[in-house]
Structures are given as C-alpha cells and as structure tokens.
Amino acid sequence: MDIEVIVVGGGHAGCEASLACSKLGHKTLLITSNKKNIASMPCNPSIGGSAKGIVVREIDALGGAMGFVADQSLLQMKMLNNKKGPAVRSLRSQADKIVYPKIMLDLLQKQTNLEILEAMVEDLIIENKKVKGVILNNNKKIKSNVVILTTGTYMKANILIGNIKKEEGPHEEKISLYLSDRLKNLGFDILRLKTGTPPRINKDSIDFSKIKPENGDKKYYTFSFDNKPSYKIKKQSLCYLTYTTPLTHKIIKDNLDKSSMYGGYVEGIGPRYCPSIEDKIVRFSDKERHQLFLEPESRYYDDIYLQGLSTSMPKRVQENIVHSIVGLEKAKILKYAYAIEYDAIDPLQVTNTLESKLITNLFTAGQINGTSGYEEAAAQGIMAGINVIAKLKKEEPLVLKRHEAYIGVLIDDLVTKGTIEPYRLLTSRAEFRLLLRHDNADLRLREYGYQYHLISAKQHQNLLSKKEDIKHLLNYVKNNRLCEKLTIKGYNFIKGTLLEAILKHSEINIDDLVNFNLLDQEYSSDILQQVEIEIKYEGYIKKEEEEVSKLLAMESKIIPADIDYEKVKNLASEARIKLNRIRPRTFAAAGRISGVNPADMAVLAIYLKKEYASE
Known about the structure:
alpha+beta, Elongation Factor Tu (Ef-tu), domain 3, Arc Repressor Mutant, subunit A, DNA polymerase, domain 1, six-stranded antiparallel β-sheet, five-stranded parallel β-sheet, 19 helices, 23 strands
C-alpha cells in the first residue's frame, strides 16, 4: 500500500497514534523492533493512578483504545481518593502484563489501513525541512507523507545495574543508536533522561503472613464508557503492603557509592515524583520507613512487582535490600531492578499539535517528548494521530485547552514550560481540576471524538441521551418540593422543601432521594452521580467556570506570528529568550512560560496594544 503515515515505535503512544490514523482511513505503517513487545509494560503493571486514571478516561472519550484494553485485562480495580472530593478521584487497575499487550496487538492486526513492520528506524528522509519518510538500519527507505516518532526509551538507551552499563532497551531489546544524533543534526536539543524499575520477586518465596493484603474495590468500575465490567469482584487479585526497615536504610546508605546514580555512572536526569529507593533514603532521611506494594504482574506467572523499590544497585546489594524487608526475608529475585537512560527531545521545540517546529510533518509523542508513564504516552499518541489526519485533510487541529482535559494540561505544560526531567501528570498541575473529573470525561470530550470521526454515531447518540437525562434530573431536583415533612439521616425537612436544598446537606446523597422515592423515575448511577456533584459543588464549579472565562479571554488574544520580541522594550532577558524560542500563539500561553513574569506580561500587553491595535 502507499503509505501516508509512518509511526515509529510500538509502545502506548505508537499504538494509539496508529489506530487513530488508520481508523480515519489513512494508510498507516507501524514500525517496531519486535511485535512481541507492542504495548508492553516494562515497568509498573498498572493502568491509571492519580490524574493518570482520568487521562485514560479522556483517551476513551476521544475514541482511543487504552481504557477498553485495560478493562479487558485487569487483575484488580480501585478508585483512588474515593473518600475525598470528586476532583481528585481516579481509577487505578492492576493490568495483566500478558493479556494487555495481546489484546492491543490483536486490535492493531485487525485494523484496516494498518500494517506492522518489524524493523529499526535509524534516520529520516528530509527534503527542504519536510519529512518524506524513514530510513531503516539496513538502509532501506520507506516514503510517507507524515512521520510520528514514538520511540519511548529506545534512543541510545543504556541499562544500568551498579557499575555495569549495557547498550540495550527494556527486555534486552536492540536500541536505536543513530536516530537521536540525526535529530540533533537537524537542530533538535536532545535531553538525556533516566527512569528505573524495581526487582520482581517469586511469589512462592514471600511470607504473606507478615504483610497486609490490599483488596480491590467492592464496587464495579470501568475505564471505558462503553464497557461493562468483565471481572468478578471476589476474584480480583490481591496486592500486599509492606515496609522498609532500619536495616534496609543502613544497607542502602552503606552502598550508595555502588548505585549507578550515586556512583556517577548515570548521565540522565530521573523523575522527581517517582524516585529510586536510594533517592528516598537520601532525600527523606527523617522517615523511619517507606511503604512498598507487592503487585501481581499476571495470572499466567508468579512474578511479583515490588513497587516503591526502584533501584540501580548491584545485584548482590539488591538481594540484601530485599531480604531486609518485612515478609521478604527469604524472597527470591526473578528479575533484578535496573535504571535506564535514554535520549529525548526538548518539547519546547514541539507545537501544541505535537508537530515539530523544525521539520514539517514530523510529529512526536510519548517519552520522546520528555514524559513518563504509559498514560501520558497514550494521550499524546491519540492527539498526534488526530492532528496528523486533520493536517492531511487540511482541517482545524484539535488543541485541548487546560480547562477541557488533563491531556490539555499535559501538552500545554510540555510545549510552554518544557521539562528537564521525566514529566508526570499530577492533579496539582491542573488549575481547574474540579471541572476535569473522572466522572465527566465523556461529557467534556466525546463530542470531539465524534467530530474527528473516532466515535461512532451510536456512541454519540448515547452521549446525547445521557446529557438529556442529566438535564432533566437537574431540572427536576431544582424545581420539585417535598409533599410532606420528612426525616432523612436525622435531618427534619418541612413540607415544601426543595429537593435541591435537601441534597446540599453533606451527609445526604442522591441515593437517599432514590430510597425515599423522591425522584420521578429510575436513573442510571452515572446520571445520579453527575446530578449530585452538580448540586453539591455548584458554588465551586461556578467559581472555576468564572476563572475559565478569564483564561479564555486571554486565550483569545492572539500574538502575531511575525512579532519581533527584540523590539519589545523593557522585557527581561530571560523572558525575551523564552518568548523568541517558544513563540507562544496566545497571550495566555505566554504567561505560562517559565521565566516570563507578570512584569514582562504587562510590557508585552502594552506593546501588542500599541503595535497591533488595528489587527
């Protein structure tokens, strides 16, 4: 077939990008070094987590695959922060490392307009600063209109255990040795980043009597808005909680010089929010212990993932560390922990559509843009796919705003603030997190999925019906009153009390209204939840919506593409450099750039008003 889009890399970003492009009718070629490692999970055997679980729901709302596949392959499901407000609730599942990649590969292989090629890309075909295809390591050229780079941790990767360094990727895979050099020659600034993974323990060697079991939730959940639960609550796999000990800390402190990082063998910068155990002991020396979770990797083998014990210590030291932990005194290590360092590009050289600023039609997504995590990668993958096709069709790109999605926060942070370490999404990064909830991702984004043809007419109709039911129930609760006095949970309500007023009491939930037959008809749990949140958090939601209006006013102030920041007098030097480099599209985006302070924004506002008032 005549290739229109080449996707380089079969990780979570590459899978979503390939599926999006091919579903939209464009001939797509996914190039990966090994089909067996498509959608693999070399680190944590989980999907979701704080903020990340909301991202998975957003991917699903847009028409992506991650949520669907996670639902079909889960071992355990939990809603994090369930006792806190809806703004911070997020799903996290234990995924089966065998099943998840298998289902994703099956989706890819069955997808029309999509082919998979096992090969290694080492160069790009560039003509007049426009990408025209790729060059494989055997010098074969494959031409295309667009290339999406989703190389993950495979560019110039090194695996490090103590002072031992190997040129290989996860799973001892071959790596791309020359692609990042080629990108550097094209003008890209290359970052050297690091991440790591903990040891895997033989299940039969663990003393489970000494550690605390962690059950899955007793309520059914799904990531996908179209899935019904495929698991049984009582048959969820168990996780376990244990802790480091004073002996653990002593072993680590005594051997810091043997760690790849503290021994000076690592060049890359590691993730601040997912530190190694060495980092934890050094940075949080006042803590007597650190919690560790034992998580199953699959139903088909007995490897247990020791979350929280990421390290690059030598194997013998790792054994001593593991044996110092409660319940692991006789544990057998099946796979040793390691650090991995790799090349990435500076995301400040990427636009908010994920297209390179340097090479036309070259898009990047995932860890190549400096992020960490499967979910962040998948989110970029689907957005790159959507925007590639929008460009090929000469349609408007999809750029999600910060109040619309965590995906919008993620991409905006990358392209306006950049990163010097593996970027991880957190709820604290979103200023409008009460609007960006787990429960309303479809209400926020599914219209976009339909607009860009990744959501079917049936799925769209289900969305419209849901919106209508929410509107109807909200109207009912706001306009109907008690016909007689009533006592609910110790509260006495007189005849004529609005149902809305009853629901505003913190101890009363909408299920109480259902139990007292106060609603006009039966509603699904999704509808009830939406209405309860809208009523209980109405004041907070309105306040955030007012802040959004202010942001949108600033977003509407477009900065002319031809602006010469050298002519803007009184700008601080750092602000001038950053503005020249990033070239923000809007006034609001300029204000989010690290190094551009309020005084610089005031100067810029005066200049724009004076020089471009007539435009």
